[in-house]
UniProtKB/TrEMBL annotation:
Parts of the chain that traverse the membrane: none
Spans annotated as Disordered: 1-28
InterPro entries: Aminopep_P_N, Creatin/AminoP/Spt16_N, Creatinase/aminopeptidase-like, Pept_M24, Peptidase_M24B_aminopep-P_CS, X-Pro_dipept-like
Keyword Glycoprotein: no
Protein name: Xaa-Pro aminopeptidase
Pfam families to which the protein is assigned, alphabetical: AMP_N, Peptidase_M24
Cofactor(s) the record lists: Mn(2+)
EC number in record: 3.4.11.9
Transport is among the record's keywords: no
A GO cellular component annotation in the UniProt record: cytosol
GO MF annotation list: manganese ion binding; metalloaminopeptidase activity
PROSITE patterns: PROLINE_PEPTIDASE
Biological process terms in GO annotation: proteolysis
Amino acid sequence: MSEQATSEQTTASTEQAPQSIVNRRQPYPEGFLATISQGWAERPEQLPPLREQAPFAAARRAAVSAAFPGKRLVIPAGPLKQRSNDTDYPFRVHSAFAHLTGWATESEPDSVLVFEPRGDAHDVTLHFRERADRTTSEFYSDATVGEFWIGPRPALPGVAGELGIATAHIDSFVSTDDDLVVDEDDELTRFVSELRLTKDEYEVAQMRLAVKVTSDGFDDIIRELPRIIEHPRGERLVEGVFHQRARSDGNWEGYDTIAASGPHACFLHWTRNDGAVLPGDLILIDAGAEVDSLYTADITRTLPVSGTFTPIQRRIYETVREAADAAFAVAKPGVRFRAVHEAAMEVIARRTAEWGLLPVTAQEALDADRGGQHRRYMVHGTSHHLGLDVHDCAQARREMYYDGTLEPGMVFTIEPGLYFQIDDVTVPEEYRGIGVRIEDDILMTEEGPVNLSADIPRTADEVEAWMARLRG
Ligand code: GLY
Ligand code: MN
Ligand code: MN
């Protein structure tokens, strides 16, 4: 494929067009220009129905409006990002924009949601680049936004009808020096991030869906293990099998899949995924499908490639599970978020001390100022909020996040691990090269925590039975 220049560009401004287009442009002959705008059927007038997420997004906008009376607020969707030359990354809209509009996968790059103050309230308008009329050259010649190139694009009335928001063309948006803009103004950025700390009913349903697709992706990986083991880059196949499921049943992955086999499991964000998957090793798979609404799961399972754990692998695995269970047991409404991490770390300290890996006692290791020796084997946190972003609510204040309290509606991970690097001479040889993480997605309710990913086997016995069942 090659982009076509407009007739004006072809005749007048060859040297101004990007080099990537100039070198391969073809002029449009008169016959094409005379006929291309004609012969198209009328588009249906019928407007789409209001989407189920619209009332939830409206309530969020009302909260934002009430918090910033008299201020003009701008929430940008964000631009396309260049990958290389004239190719861009797939567009992923800003999460605050998706949250406040309910417009997710289909969002248009460079759109803005504007809160225009009116008295103590706001008029809210979604500005975006509406599709071009078929009489324009944009329709047939613009490879970035032309419908001939990228398929049907939205019109103002259709989006207004689906989202329940007034819409206007992006050309009518004029920024002012007094605007508060998300990612530019700290207070607004923080507010819209903290607004996502508790999820509404629609969001919880989307999180359940994301977990379900992710669970199916893990099943697919186990079924494909015989093929994966045969391939010199088996980790890539793991990534690819999960990607196929995520793309088929959702929008994308919420983050790059970690397919970390053998000693790679000890690299916490191993996304290179270019290693072999060898029988006898463990493989740590950290993956999450992002569904069409852009909510993502974030789940880790660590599997014995051959189907059964060795005694040392099982010991480490079951200790990580013990830490996860201890974290789950303390998670209750009103409890501090940090208490979840502390409960997991208490188990990690106790067990690593018992195994003789620490130069101090477990109690000394847990001392806030002088301890921490056990953290060599688990340097990361145990929990983070989860939702539209894998690390959701990242701009929330510490007192609302790590030092805040758990409330019904919060969705967060519990993900302890133990990682013994291949060259860590502080541990006996049999531990080296083993990395385990178990990560579940938790919904807090009035009655206590619900493990949304509980149906994905967790205990060492369950994992072995799961693998035996799916591999036949
Ligand atoms: N997948 C990244 C994380 O677990 O936080
Ligand atoms: Mn996580
Ligand atoms: Mn994860």
